[in-house]
Amino acid sequence: MTTAFEATDPNTAQARHLVVVSGGLGEPSSSLMLANRMASATADALSAEGLVPEVHVVELRLLATDIAEAMVNPARSEALTAALAEVEQADGIVAVSPTFKASYSGLFKAFWDLVDDDALRNVPVLLGATGGTPRHSLKIDTAMRPLFSYLRTKVLSSAVYAASDDWGEVTGGQESARTTPLQTRIEAAGADLASVVGRLPARPRRESGEAKPLEVIPFDQLLRGH
């Protein structure tokens, strides 16, 4: 299932279409929370450059059954088709996965297996990941970057990994052992993605009606993980 905020006229030269894919499985989900904060930072930076962000958030846990079915059956559900259509038209992508066995989750990988190999050529991608301890942070470089390099995307050198104790400083609790606070890293990464997306022309969008319109929900609700 996908949700959207800051809906705009996608045909204007100032509009930029961002898609955030969260592989979080829980409710609430730290991966979704990180993804939404990264989206917020990117949207703020784009707005500061005079561009208008249109952001869609895809929660893979809500599509888990549809994704599994699509792996063994060529037929795809309407919800999964709409999510893939949004991703394949994106001007920029934020992709976040929880850590499983020092890598991304199987659900996360299965979704990207369904994306057309040539659909995301040269599309900027900002990576994020969550895990219990900082020692798993290298999974972004060892597992996630090769996946998106295979899809021929522009994988940004910036990335954000959030361990469990990183969230303390964000929510007002215990401080993290990291030297750079999580929110500072999120804002820097979002600015990097916005800078790349802003320099590129908007990609053509499909004709109206080819993808099901998505629900628009308040931005502050997205930050709470709705």
Integer average pLDDT: 84
Q: Report how far apart the termini are.
A: 13 Å
Number of domains: 1
Q: Say how many strands there are.
A: 6
Strand order of the largest sheet: 1-3-2-4-5-6
What fold name stands as the CATH topology? Rossmann fold
Largest sheet: 6 strands, mixed
- Described by the principal axes of the CA atoms, the overall outline is globular
- Give the H and E element order: EEHEHHEHEHEHHH
- For the record, what is the CATH homologous superfamily label? Flavodoxin domain
Tell me the Rg in angstroms: 16 Å
Question: Which residues sit in consecutive blocks of at least 5 with pLDDT less than 50?
Answer: 4-8, 208-220
| The CATH top-level class label | Alpha Beta
Give helix % range.
25-40%
Number of helices: 8
The helix-and-strand class reads: alpha/beta
Summarize the structure.
With 226 residues, the chain is α/β, with parallel strands linked by helices.
How are the SSEs ordered, and which strands pair?
Blueprint: E1 2-5, E2 15-22, H1 30-48, E3 52-59, H2 64-72, H3 78-88, E4 92-98, H4 106-113, E5 124-131, H5 139-150, E6 154-163, H6 167-171, H7 182-199, H8 219-223
Parallel strand pairs: 2-3, 2-4, 4-5, 5-6
Antiparallel strand pairs: 1-3
Helix pairs in contact: 1-7
